[in-house]
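Usage example:
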Amino acid sequence: MGLADEVLVGNRLSLARLLTQIENETPVGRQAISELYRFTGRAHIIGVTGAPGTGKSSLVNCLALAFRQPEGGIPQAKVGILAVDPSSPFSGGAILGDRVRMKDLAGDSGIFIRSMATRGSLGGLAVTTAGMVQALDAAGFEIILVETVGAGQSEIDIARLAHTTLVVEAPGLGDDIQAIKAGILEIADILVINKADQPGVDVTERALKANLDLAHPSPHTFRTGKTSAAFLLAGMPVETPAPAELWIPPIVKTTATEKKGVGELIQAILQHRGYIEGNGMKRSHEIFRTAYEMGVLLEEALLQDWRQGISDVELEALLEQVYTRQISPWEAVQKLV
Amino acid sequence: MGLADEVLVGNRLSLARLLTQIENETPVGRQAISELYRFTGRAHIIGVTGAPGTGKSSLVNCLALAFRQPEGGIPQAKVGILAVDPSSPFSGGAILGDRVRMKDLAGDSGIFIRSMATRGSLGGLAVTTAGMVQALDAAGFEIILVETVGAGQSEIDIARLAHTTLVVEAPGLGDDIQAIKAGILEIADILVINKADQPGVDVTERALKANLDLAHPSPHTFRTGKTSAAFLLAGMPVETPAPAELWIPPIVKTTATEKKGVGELIQAILQHRGYIEGNGMKRSHEIFRTAYEMGVLLEEALLQDWRQGISDVELEALLEQVYTRQISPWEAVQKLV
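Running the assembly step on the lines above writes:
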């Protein structure tokens, strides 16, 4: 039985191996995820992002627990957690605390947790994350929580994978709201104020509301302009109908350490799921995500192709001309293509 | 006289126009910057980055003033300032306060200030910034200050343009040091604690020193691994000799609003310039930067080329197969190339 088949029948060890293959971008991983692709599309993908110190990890743990041991009408679901830490492009980043997370959730076969240190290009990171989400999806995990640290382009790219994106804030983080408002609020489907037992909640809530009023465009209207999705650069047709009814991101207050507010948060998530499934936005989301993923893969393939058609000697000679400023980089590229 | 020639003879209006053309990625801009390329390579490029609220803009103003009205053996230099705000990939970002900056520096033809809202892909942003730096360089600006906000991948990519990178901190920013330590300290050639008149300077300095001891690898050793520079992905040869003598980033305390510590900071910058010019690192830096820039331009050119060879109908048919999960994105790309 191949790796893909093992994953389909629920072999956790094979799933763990596959995730490693995908993370390392091996041919084996690509082949397996390609075979599994037609079994994907069932999971609801929840992105969780926010600044360090907001308690995202505890919140993700709580959400997972609440889907595993549901109360008050929440449907039970198998949960996959993928924690991505793209904070250090140089050193490979820190491994997140898998063991800490496992304490509450150990021994439950309905849950699968994986941490991923960042590596590679941003486009590459988003594609690797997409592959890992697809593996969990094919393996039958119905809720997939993708946790990212921070508020940069990589988080935004990863958030584009998610059907529902939570942006997590906490009271008293000072400049963070200022830092966060520019890009990250625009991707929020739900705003969470975690650590809501701490002083300053009202200030944070007012600040978020004010920023939301200023900054929030219609959610899930993918801007195609000159974004990083290579396919869109290449003038690919991408269908993005405007939603009939605007989604106003609700603000939900939680205290993850005391498991407070989590039920309300899950209700908001389920509402958002109903919203995007009901108005065709789930499909346009899917189309955008696929175009993005194909764009990154296409760029890679085109570069490899091109590189095979040119000798090291030719290339180095041309580069030397650029280094010595005889020709410009742009002229050199015209000669190379 | 063409735009490039106008810029070479010091026409400020033409320079401003050229920068707009480069920012908008027009063919006119690319042509002109290509013509100007052989006049570049004279400027010392200083990157200034750090979290919001650290007073980077004031510091950049001070540095510019100190190079224009030098004291204590600092050489006078023409100064170009490029302020990049990549905080909002969605809305195009806020225009920085040119007018505020101009107050101290107005009427001096030895200074040129330009703000640039972010747009486009990250690779694209780095290339656009590189082009604008080249224009200022060719126009005779000897010191070019490139200011970026934040600590994400885009800042790191832009910092790679700079010969000397300043990472700016301020006391009392709470979680910021934690947030900043992972990636950004590794790109610092000089650490600046600005707002050094405020309480908590010692705490910040100790935290920076501790992080520096933990995190700092040999500076300017460009990691080629799987970084975003497409050229490196394509297996391009890039020369990166290890420096004979390690540069330990000094920590300099400044109070930009009172113009304190700026002389010391400039001495540190000049020392770093001497260091990279003396040991061949300036050349390997140049090679890395060029390879990066060519990589981004090459990706663009390859994509455009490919797109011209395939019809909309073919492409849409294949995409439909992916959306309906008949084939995987990876299989589709194999068919497309």
